[in-house]
């Protein structure tokens, strides 16, 4: 039964009904929602004036044209009689929250998260282990051992600072440059390598290009290549978490380039209107492949878009792991408590090339890259902090470098030796069950290989 | 998009209700008078409006599913959705305008029925708890992306795209994401509990953007299922199967049947299997294959063929477009030796091409005549020319006749 909001004819002067067509009386009484459906003559009633809830409320309103305030459902604002365009502020944009200076010293002691030594050491070791793995796997692509790789140089702080501020069961939707989140959640090197090599141990069964990691156990949704598609998906997952009273947040990572996609706009708007416990984490690293931010947007970055959607937003120094941690921690607390989205724009710099298919010297100077590598790097900033706390020293640094390299090399050699998965796995998981027509295709490949198998690299694949 | 759509649907609802006089009055007396003059009588006005190109044939009342109730197509959809919300506490329904009941009335009453005042940890005065049937912003890529996300957590997501004509912004999310979720993750993740419902097909006056049948675009996408019912009874069972299926499904609802198709439908939930075509009439001489509204067109063609040509037709409702039931169609063509496939969507690249290609591969030596496809022309769907565009019974009959005489 359809409930229309009726304004009973008996409430209006008859003359006005005839004159104006019934809407726009001197005084409109709008029935409160609780008395919906009680109109006895619905056929003669006219639809009530729209009582659009704004911002999140259903309320009774008394309309009167004698009252000079705006009545538009679409905005809650005052009139102005001066013609003035709002000037977007890009010279002095949203300020960048930081806790440490570039030398790793706490600036404002009240912002120090006072994290215990073990936790901060875990930050450091996650970032450096990731860095070491990146170097080795980048090289392995150059040597033709894996087909493709993407490094995370310079952005380790964004991954680890945010991952550390979440619960282990918070669901992560990433783009492709968030391996540090998995690293922080103790995803084994063996599995990173297995995915890059597409070997039998790959949880993804060898189906995707390298760095398209996924881990159900660690609540990290498998990466996909199309950009920004994860954004509205993360919002849906957050909505489901809210409905389930799961007390979980969903975090969604994306770059400043992906933020230009329609899916980003869709995700932001849905998260706000549907009141979802989600953290949108934008890694603004200055480049989308070769496209600098000056060609990606004209406004004040991504953080400035948040308020346009009604989303609480902050910009942080992405190379300051404590700033990232503090912002994510607070956003998580409030997102879950208040069921609303948060937008964190972490400013950072992509020190590496976009991928092994890219040579960034074609579009930026080596000097620029060196500045960030040497003068403003999340790992060295945290190391300075550790040193100043007396929690780390040169000897430990040397030992750790040796140990981490050894760990990576071992995993690497093991991954190289393993076979690839059985070619039958080409056909499974398209649907939960294999359709009969697809099974026929699988059988036809098997028959083909019986005759022509010598032309295929079967020796590298599991039997 | 939605504004024009709801205007179109408003007109459609009035027309389908058969209230000709009512329609003329509300169009604006002046306009109607000018337009209809000189032939301004009620009867002539009705003749100027096209009659439907088909007659809906209800199936006999089903006996095996308990008590039945007379329902039209949109009511059978509501019933399926109602059953789903009742059985599955994680199920949610969302899209443009679904909260008040939807532009085609498919979700009428559901929002209020399932409002148990669920506590929402939010501002005090927004605890309406209407979190199971809700409107989304006007954004199809958002609707489908959001639905995928819900399904990834294991909850049941039933998304509505207001008209199939507007599904294209969501094409990337459907093809690149939903369809590939399980495969690309090695079955770590999936969005099998996602179902997308959308009104589909010609409606008499829908023109380019309220008449499309886009099933062929999705047929080329392994990983999703595409299902199209011909009737209320079929719709409810197939929709319930889609919702419960562990793969993302697209369920296209022939909008011209929303009011026009009325039959007895079980009140309780029941399932009709996916990927199984139905032989709704056995025959010896020709196999006719169609889906959705067009099934009723070919039913009539079969009667015409019997009467005028003495030809016995086997009629198959394909029901699931992908993965499609090759075996049932093959078995039929092996018997009859002749195949005619008909759909409203344009000829080139339409799903009839896939059926034709597969059947000639599998049943080449059984064929007595080339496979015939009677489809829409390779044009956008026109407005005023709709009666000429659609593959009506005369075109189908003519093609059949040529096949018989081959």
Automatic annotation (TrEMBL), chain A:
Subcellular location(s) of the protein: Mitochondrion matrix
Under the heading Pfam families, the entry gives: E1_dh
Q: What cofactor(s) does the depicted protein rely on?
A: thiamine diphosphate
* Domain Dehydrogenase E1 component stretches: 124-423
Catalytic activity, as annotated: N(6)-[(R)-lipoyl]-L-lysyl-[protein] + 3-methyl-2-oxobutanoate + H(+) = N(6)-[(R)-S(8)-2-methylpropanoyldihydrolipoyl]-L-lysyl-[protein] + CO2
Gene Ontology CC: one annotated term? branched-chain alpha-ketoacid dehydrogenase complex
| Main localization of the protein described in the UniProt heading | mitochondrion
What is the superkingdom listed in this entry's lineage? Eukaryota
Q: Does the keyword Transit peptide apply?
A: yes
Give the Gene Ontology MF terms in alphabetical order. Answer: branched-chain 2-oxo acid dehydrogenase activity; metal ion binding
- This enzyme's EC code(s): 1.2.4.4
Which InterPro entries does the UniProt record give?
A: Alpha-ketoacid_DH_E1_comp (IPR050771), DH_E1 (IPR001017), THDP-binding (IPR029061)
Q: How does it assemble?
A: Heterotetramer of 2 alpha/BCKDHA and 2 beta chains/BCKDHB that forms the branched-chain alpha-keto acid decarboxylase (E1) component of the BCKD complex. The branched-chain alpha-ketoacid dehydrogenase is a large complex composed of three major building blocks E1, E2 and E3. It is organized around E2, a 24-meric cubic core composed of DBT, to which are associated 6 to 12 copies of E1, and approximately 6 copies of the dehydrogenase E3, a DLD dimer. Interacts with PPM1K.
Q: What does this protein do?
A: Together with BCKDHB forms the heterotetrameric E1 subunit of the mitochondrial branched-chain alpha-ketoacid dehydrogenase (BCKD) complex. The BCKD complex catalyzes the multi-step oxidative decarboxylation of alpha-ketoacids derived from the branched-chain amino-acids valine, leucine and isoleucine producing CO2 and acyl-CoA which is subsequently utilized to produce energy. The E1 subunit catalyzes the first step with the decarboxylation of the alpha-ketoacid forming an enzyme-product intermediate.
Instruction: Spell out the family assignment given in the record's similarity comment.
Output: Belongs to the BCKDHA family.
- Protein name (Swiss-Prot/TrEMBL): 2-oxoisovalerate dehydrogenase subunit alpha
Organism of origin: Callithrix jacchus
The gene coding this protein: BCKDHA
Automatic annotation (TrEMBL), chain B:
Q: Which domain of life is it from?
A: Eukaryota
- Which EC class is the enzyme in? oxidoreductase
InterPro entries in UniProt? THDP-binding (IPR029061), Transketo_C/PFOR_II (IPR009014), Transketolase-like_Pyr-bd (IPR005475), Transketolase_C (IPR033248)
**Annotated Transketolase-like pyrimidine-binding domain residues:** 71-260
BP terms from Gene Ontology: branched-chain amino acid catabolic process; response to nutrient
Molecular function (GO) terms for this protein are: branched-chain 2-oxo acid dehydrogenase activity
Its function? Together with BCKDHA forms the heterotetrameric E1 subunit of the mitochondrial branched-chain alpha-ketoacid dehydrogenase (BCKD) complex. The BCKD complex catalyzes the multi-step oxidative decarboxylation of alpha-ketoacids derived from the branched-chain amino-acids valine, leucine and isoleucine producing CO2 and acyl-CoA which is subsequently utilized to produce energy. The E1 subunit catalyzes the first step with the decarboxylation of the alpha-ketoacid forming an enzyme-product intermediate.
* Protein name (Swiss-Prot/TrEMBL): 2-oxoisovalerate dehydrogenase subunit beta, mitochondrial
